[in-house]
Amino acid sequence: MRTKTEQVPTKPAPTNNLNDKVPEAKSSINEQVFLEGPHTRRLELWMLLRIFREFFRGFRKLHFIGPCVTVFGSARFKEDHPYYGLAREMGAALSRMGFTVMTGGGPGIMEAANRGAKDAGGISIGCNIKLPFEQDANPYLDDMIEFRYFFVRKTMLIKYSYAFVAMPGGMGTMDELFEALTLIQTKKIRHFPIVLMGSDYYLPLIEFLESMVNAGTISRTDLDLLMVTDSVDEAIRHIDKFAVQKFGLRRVPRRMWALGER
User: Among candidates 90, 32, 73, 28, which has minimal Cα distance to 175?
Assistant: First the structure.
């Protein structure tokens, strides 16, 4: 039995007060606030305006960077890892093709690809995502843009890329890979080559996709532009065939000084 002097713990009552929510929404995890469920109309309007601003900033920043290829992969691989060297070689080869190399802007595979682009004298861009734990930008970026929302960032990576190169990676790499595969399957994007670098690493995934084909949940044609290789030269030929030869390298739009585009 509790005495009168004991404090009974209570659960904080939920609040829809804007002043209570906005400080949390301004934190690095404000996508969590957005996905919590219904809030006040005032708060949700505030979040929608922030999302619009993030899209606008992304369009404005990436409009003039030229045709891109995005390279995904784990942030955990160090400079002495073979996958780091492979990603660096891939970044250089993409730059020599005339592509801007885009990554998540962090360490590991992302750093290696950006570094390779700089080795070849190409353009290197990072699209970072703000997370509860800070991730420093790698030192091989010509420019970087930060996003609060994963769905905004993924839209930008798809919109401005001609191809994806997925190096060995974790949950984030799988997320981006299957986002692209879903868009290809549903005909939202067409002729979008995806290269998986690392045959041994991706073998279980390919076997699972084959089982999906056999089960009839996806079509064989859904995998036509998915290539698995350990060869940079083979990957480059694949991207050249399905991105460059098919569409050419899109010209970079001219800047309009009247709109403040410098």
Answer: 73
Residue 87 lies in a domain: yes
- Using an 8 Å Cβ cutoff, are 74 and 137 in contact? no
**Of the candidates 157, 239, 234, 240, the residue with the CA atom closest to the CA atom of residue 198:** 234
Sheet holding 194-197, edge to edge: 143-147, 124-129, 100-103, 68-72, 161-166, 194-197, 226-229
Residue 171 and residue 46 share a domain: no
C-alpha to C-alpha distance for 248 and 242, rounded to whole angstroms: 10
Q: Looking at the structure, do residues 44 and 86 belong to the same domain, yes or no?
A: no
Q: Is residue 229 classed as helix, strand or coil in its secondary structure?
A: strand
What is the helix (H) or strand (E) element at residue 112, kind and residue range?
A: helix 109-119
Over residues 78-129, the pLDDT tens digits come to 999 999 999 999 999 999 999 999 999 999 999 999 999 999 999 999 998 8
pLDDT tens digits, one per residue of 167-204? 999 999 999 999 999 998 888 988 789 999 999 999 99
**Number of helices followed by number of strands (H, E) in the chain:** 10, 7
- Say how far apart CA 196 and CA 51 lie, in whole Å: 31
How far is CA 14 from each of CA 11, 21, 31, rounded to the nearest angstrom?
9, 10, 18
Q: Could you tell me if residue 10 is inside a domain?
A: no
For 31, the domain range is 18-56
The CA-based dihedral angle spanning residues 131, 181, 85, 140, taken in that order and rounded to the nearest 10 degrees: -50
| Residue ranges of E strands in 142-187 | 143-147, 161-166
Into how many domains does the chain fold? 2
- Give the residue from 91, 124, 96 showing the smallest Cα distance to 195: 91
